[in-house]
Amino acid sequence: MKRFIVAVVGSFVLWASPVSAWDVCKHVEEMAENIMKNRQAGASMSDMMEIANSTESEATRTVARHLVVKAYEMPRFSTEEHKRNIIIRFKNKAYLECYKALNK
Known about the structure:
104 residues, 0% strand
């Protein structure tokens, strides 16, 4: 995931200047959280890809599609506690990789 985030975050920064690294990474974190929430709620991957592909920005579409794939590579849990934990881990990992990529 790290190489991908580095490349895409670079395009976000070019596209969205003068947006701060915090703003970009916060947006990535929010996308990751929403995608994993929907994944844990039972949304189909094809529905999530359709939503990802409907965003206006190519950079956002690319990040969203990547996050959808990564979310569906992870298991779907049955207990609310496990769902909460995977959502938190997933969004934190996305934010961390974004932040590290922008703060080299």
